[in-house]
Request: fold
Amino acid sequence: MDNLIVVDHPLIQHKLTILRDIETGPKEFRELTKEITLLLTYEATRHIKTHSVEISTPICRTEGKMIEDKKVTVVPILRAGLGMMEGVLSLMPNASVGFIGIYRDPETIQPVEYYAKLPGINDNEIFVLDPMLATGVSSAAAIEYVKKAGGKHITLMCLIASPEGASFISSKFPDIKIFTASLDEKLNDHAYIVPGLGDAGDRLYRTK
Reply:
């Protein structure tokens, strides 16, 4: 999987360990999700183009580099993807935001789309946010929707991934890079990631 990048920085490993812990409550879980996403974003945006600007330092005039974050679109997959959104926007506050609502049918394990709203994406850099890359079907459905809307430069960011889900996305979308904090062991019989961290949405919002 040449397009899979596991960002295993010590800070990410440390925060991810606390995130996985069943004793970690929703407040800390939300904070850690934001922090890990911020660190992932640092790596996932290395390819973004910069442009030159002339500025004045307290010493002299000089040339610096800047990105155009107005040409960035963040697309969290509802609802758990919302937990990652703030981490990206804290670094690129002028990015536009689209939303795609998808849930996995517990009987068929197939994605069901219930909401979608995207801004104009043109040639924007697009970051699809899905905390748990399990089977990959929800991420794939979101990526398909973005592509049909004209998205070309798409990156998928997730907190943890299963080998099955990462392989599925890699083979289906060889043009898309996947950034994750961990490639876990496997999926269990209920399509949950092992060792995983449970249901990210439930842990973010205390819905169970």
Notes: The chain has a mean pLDDT of 93. The first strand starts at residue 4 and ends at 6. The longest helix spans residues 26-44. DSSP finds six helices and 13 strands in the chain.
